[in-house]
């Protein structure tokens, strides 16, 4: 079974239930209409004249035109470019220019959409259910002392060969920090705790060892904790305790069973991260290092064959087993979990 066919097994559905990022808020201005392709679906993202964002299935029910290519916003509706049928943010048919009749029974599927921490996020559920938990909340996003990542410290990689499960499991892979990310010595897992749709990990590691100073560790080597929180499968949120006053988000949104778009958002303290409205040398070094380390993971993932029954070492077994057990909830039908919406 290849990476293209499985990011995680066993599971009932191709993609995990939860919130996923589809854009940064700053990318989508008033009246913008943008085509998207996620979860094997054609979608359209638009922002109304009042500022509301909405994601709908892309094809107009009238004659099937893709609203994302040539569509426009009129008031609080998006207008199909083919025959100018108007659709509300909830997918309801509102008007047709050549007829006074509304086809009330014709609707376009509307995806639950929210804006948080400068990100536009949609809720995916293979059973069509409404959100059962909130999208990620990031304290730095509401703190005026920190930058908004987009556009200075945000980056997207399109159509990367990986699935969210790969990035999520990376949280507990303490060994690869040395082999892939060139840490001077192996890290260790201080804690790994599942909490509903969130999985919290703390890793002990050394940074800057063997060097008197680096741009990231100007005062020399330091021992630190890397705190990581998996927000279901769509997001991981990272913080280096006692090393850097930054926080960053990795968002992975599946395009199809083979590929995903990966976005990173780096929150920087303005007093260190900005200089004359641009990234400071320290801020740029921090951002470039983050991009470089992500690319190293991608180079592994693109050729990876997911191993369901891995021969984990005794040190790896506890955190990996806990992680994989936790992820099952996002793939299984809610009825199989004995839960109700």
Describe the protein in words:
It is a single chain. This protein has 341 residues and is α+β, with helices and mostly antiparallel strands. The protein folds into 2 domains: 107 residues, Rieske Iron-sulfur Protein, CATH 2.102.10; 184 residues, Naphthalene 1,2-dioxygenase Alpha Subunit, Chain A, domain 1. The protein is 15% helix and 33% strand. Strands 12-18-17-16-15-14-13 form a 7-stranded antiparallel β-sheet. The longest helix has 21 residues. The N terminus is likely disordered.
Biggest sheet statistics = 7 strands, antiparallel
Provide the domain count: 2
Would you identify the CATH architecture of the largest domain? Alpha-Beta Complex
Count of helical regions: 5
| CATH class assignment of the largest domain | Alpha Beta
- The 3D shape can be described as globular
How helix-rich are the residues, as a percent range?
10-25%
Work out the oligomeric state of the chains in this entry: single chain
Q: What's the total count of β strands?
A: 20
How many angstroms separate the termini? 33 Å
């Amino acid at each position: 079974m290849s990476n293209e066919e499985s990011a995680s097994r066993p599971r009932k559905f191709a993609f995990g239930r939860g919130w996923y990022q589809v854009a940064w808020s700053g990318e989508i201005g008033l009246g913008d209409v943008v085509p998207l392709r996620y979860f094997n679906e054609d979608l359209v993202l638009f922002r109304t004249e009042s500022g509301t964002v909405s994601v709908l299935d892309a094809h107009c029910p009238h004659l099937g035109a893709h609203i994302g290519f040539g569509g426009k916003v009129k008031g609080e509706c998006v207008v199909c470019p083919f025959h100018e049928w108007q659709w509300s943010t909830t997918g309801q048919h509102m008007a047709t220019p050549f007829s006074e009749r509304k086809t009330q029974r014709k609707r376009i599927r509307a995806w639950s959409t929210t804006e948080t921490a400068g990100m536009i996020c949609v809720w995916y559920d293979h059973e069509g259910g409404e959100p059962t938990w909130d999208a990620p909340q990031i304290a730095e996003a509401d703190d005026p002392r920190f930058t908004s990542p987009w556009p200075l410290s945000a980056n997207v990689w399109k159509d990367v060969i990986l699935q969210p499960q790969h990035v999520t499991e990376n949280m507990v892979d303490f060994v690869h920090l040395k082999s892939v990310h060139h840490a001077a010595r192996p890290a260790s897992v201080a804690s790994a705790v599942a909490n509903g749709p969130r999985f919290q990990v703390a890793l002990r590691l050394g940074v800057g060892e063997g060097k008197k100073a680096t741009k990231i560790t100007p005062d020399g080597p330091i021992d630190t904790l890397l705190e990581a929180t998996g927000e279901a499968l769509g997001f991981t949120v990272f913080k280096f305790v006692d090393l850097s006053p930054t926080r960053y988000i990795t968002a992975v949104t599946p395009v199809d069973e083979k590929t995903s778009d990966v976005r990173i958002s780096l929150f920087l303290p303005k007093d260190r991260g900005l200089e004359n409205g641009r990234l400071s040398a320290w801020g740029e070094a921090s951002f470039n290092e983050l991009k470089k380390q992500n690319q190293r993971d991608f180079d592994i993932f693109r050729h990876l064959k997911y191993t369901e029954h891995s021969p984990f070492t005794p040190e790896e077994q506890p955190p990996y087993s806990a992680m994989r057990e936790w992820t099952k909830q996002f793939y299984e039908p809610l009825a199989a979990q004995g839960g109700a919406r």
